[in-house]
Design brief:
Shape: globular
Structural class: alpha+beta
Number of domains: 1
CATH architecture: Orthogonal Bundle
Largest sheet: 5 strands, mixed
CATH superfamily: Cytochrome P450
């Protein structure tokens, strides 16, 4: 077994092309202690899935040190019965028929964003003008916020996201933005208690489970989490799916004509280029795994990006292949099963903390890309992009300029 230097996880080569690093870790060091970040990295598909589904051993309370410092106590950092109780209150609000009730509104917002992006008829940066703007506009619209306030909502979003992953000053500004957002939402919450409407704030205010509801602080933190976690991942999902299709013209042509193929392309994008490539957990007890001891209380980094390219789960894992026979296609399932020769991608996690907003992210991403392919049309397209790069826990295309003809 060869040695592996932790510095390779923190250099530019990894950020631009992490696949060789991930493969070496999967093959030789499936649980690796990164002394620079002081975390244990887990890289194989079966192991990452196990960590997701064993919440009694691998806790999400690690988020107290990241998002919790910006938003305060929130659902994401809870475990056990308290997590189940709070999650059960909000989980139905953006799923199934309740989400379908918002489809027309999402379609309308998406069409407006695409209209603005293509207004002058010139080249369009899909990331800056569509992917980065659409998720925030959709969430603001779902919440029923006045259209004139959407710009301020976007300012808060950017400040809070910077505060999660950057330095102390950025974190301070992020907390200020979160406090301003909560103060802005507070009078709306009280108004919806008295006179509810069809918006998501009304649904959050009146949602309950066994007589329990979210208190005002929890509701404000949930809105902030929906805006940041939901907005950020959907932003990158739109960018990545657009890039993969536009750099594979034959797949783009099929997706343009066949909604089922677009659905497959979404699932395959979540596998090969998920927006989140690393998520954190904390070991609640000593765990010995692949002959490596993970001590109680230590951080664990689940490498989703690596797990989704594990040769033990997928053939030709570096190939963008929407028709691949070894991937569970269609609507994601909370257990993320591996059955009948098919493995689930892990972009939305698995187990008790499976992403609450996955159906919204799926619908919104597919709608944005469907409209984008329609606006571009079947003719020749020029695509200019440096490709995806890792930035902290995320990986995405940062620039994607397309021009017709």
């Amino acid at each position: 077994m060869t040695g592996f230097a932790a510095t390779r996880l923190h250099d530019t080569a990894h950020d631009q092309n992490p696949e060789p690093v991930w493969q070496e870790l999967r093959d030789n060091h499936p649980v690796f202690y990164d002394e620079i970040a002081n975390v244990y990295m887990v890289t194989r598909h079966a192991d990452v899935r196990r960590a997701f589904t064993e919440a009694e051993t691998f806790s999400s309370r690690v988020y107290r040190k990241t998002m919790g410092r910006v938003f305060g106590p929130m659902l994401l950092q809870l475990d056990g019965k308290e997590h189940v109780r709070r999650r059960t209150i909000v989980s139905p609000l953006l799923m199934g028929v309740r989400l379908e009730a918002y489809h027309d509104l999402i379609d309308e917002v998406a069409a407006e964003v695409l209209d603005d992006a293509f207004a002058d008829g010139g080249p369009v940066d899909v990331v800056a003008t569509i992917a980065h703007r659409l998720p925030v506009s959709v969430i603001a619209s779902l919440l029923g916020l006045p259209r004139e306030d959407h710009g301020q909502f976007f300012v808060w979003y950017e400040a809070m996201m910077a505060g999660v992953w950057v330095d102390d000053e950025a974190r301070r500004r992020g907390r200020e933005a979160a406090d301003e957002l909560k103060a802005y939402i507070a009078p709306m919450v009280e108004a919806r208690r008295i006179k509810p409407g069809d918006d998501l704030i009304s649904r959050l205010v009146h949602a309950e489970e066994e007589g329990e509801r979210l208190d005002p602080g929890e509701l404000g933190a949930y809105v902030a989490l929906l805006l940041t976690a939901g907005g950020e991942t959907t932003d990158k999902s739109i960018s990545n799916l657009s890039w993969l299709l536009l750099t594979h013209p034959e797949e783009a042509a099929r997706a343009r004509e066949d909604s089922e193929h677009l659905d497959k392309a979404f699932s395959e994008t979540m596998r090969i280029l998920p927006p989140l490539v690393y998520v954190g957990r904390e070991a609640l007890s000593d765990v010995t795994w692949h002959n490596v001891l993970i001590p109680e209380g230590r951080g664990v980094r689940l490498a989703i990006g690596s797990a989704n390219r594990d040769e033990r789960a997928y053939s030709e894992p570096d190939r963008f292949w929407p028709d691949r026979p070894d991937l569970h296609q269609g609507l994601e399932r909370r257990p993320a099963p591996t059955t009948n020769g098919r493995a689930s991608h892990l972009a939305f996690g698995a187990g008790s903390h499976f992403c609450l907003g996955y159906q919204l992210a799926r619908y919104e991403t597919k709608k944005a890309v469907e409209l984008l392919l329609g606006r571009i049309g079947p003719g020749p397209v020029t695509v200019d992009s440096p490709g995806p790069a890792v930035d902290g826990p995320t990986r995405s295309v940062r620039e994607l300029v397309v021009a017709r003809g």
